[in-house]
Amino acid sequence: MTTAQTVPALGDDPFGTEVLTDPYPFHSRLREAGPVVHLPRYDLMAMGRYAEVRASLTDWSTFVSGRGVGLADFARETPWRPPSLLLEADPPDHTVVRTVMNDVISPRAVRAMRATFAAAADELADALVARGRFDAVTDLAEVYPLRVFPDAVGLPADGREHLLPYGAVAFNSFGPPNKLRTDALAGAAAAHEWVLANCEREALAPRGLGADIWAAVDRGEITGEQAPVLVRSLLTAGVDTTVYGLANSVYALARHPEQWAALHADPKLTKFAFDEALRWESPVQTFFRTTTTDTEVAGTTIPKDTKVLLFLGSANRDTRHWGDDAETFDIRRSAAGHVAFGMGIHQCVGQAIARLEAEAMLGALARRAVRIEFDGDPVPKLNNTLKGWASIPVRVTAG
Ligand code: OVM
């Protein structure tokens, strides 16, 4: 990249252990450095402020996804798997499959899941509150989505243990070729094979989101080659994201006892608590775009063919947008407009399912527990894209 202009630079490795463990001090320096910052470690441009992150996400023709939303540029290197037709695609191709997915995950389809999801959440919350002490990651966040979502897709019961490892691989793969990515890809074969096999029509239940995608082939909306790749998107984007979203929500609420008290007193706040948790500690921290042309952002020219790293988790804590208390977790604020689900044409197509899961599970817990406290130190889980926890020991008081 040739830059005659002076662009602020930061030498940090945004995918190093220090930043992945606690990204917020780095986010703060990134936002202060400027609207567009050069990261010489990978020779790429980065944005950490809300306005520019949001504007870039929305400008899909300048900041494209088709060359990959990780560091790897698909124009120069072969992707680790055939690209996602949704995440790693641009209009007009993207528009066709996104329209199909919007129909598959329609408000009506999600409403049909509500009773089952609520019953499963109530059952798990009963058991956890009866125990009194549990791990909010391994006993709750990694359990609940796997009890409801694979059934909603129509996956066979056998082999579901591959789902979480597969997601970990996919989200690590967006990063640079560091140890996280290399180790994940080296151990991915079994999970990859299972996912591939179970995106086929014959493997999926006759009713469910998977079957609904395949039905679009019969209507001539997509091809039989596209259908399994779209089912794959459900399995890649629909499990780890909700696991991290639930765990991060419990973490935020346990860290802020007065916020839990407010939620317990008024469980109707659950949906706001979830959005605020997504804002405050966003599961998906970063995505890349690639510029298709020289483009000016807040006075800085970004050359054509540049990988641009968008810090969603930083935009969600930018005081320029959220005010001086941006770093404060407050379930009564309006977190609307956060970019934890992205923004624009790629904004999370499954977010209604994520919201349904979170409202059911967090609501069930909030109604049953008057208090939740840490019962040991939370243990971070490092991933090149996802921010979250390997373990959150908690103690709950029934009432
Ligand atoms: C996909 C996909 C994969 C990872 C993430 C994602 C957050 C989508 O395969 O389409 O969105």
TrEMBL record:
Q: Which Pfam families match?
A: p450
Instruction: List the InterPro entries hit by this protein, alphabetically.
Output: Cyt_P450, Cyt_P450_B, Cyt_P450_CS, Cyt_P450_sf
> What's in the keyword line of the UniProt record?
Heme, Iron, Metal-binding, Monooxygenase, Oxidoreductase
Return the similarity comment.
Belongs to the cytochrome P450 family.
Q: What is this protein called?
A: Cytochrome P450
Species source reads: Pseudonocardia yunnanensis
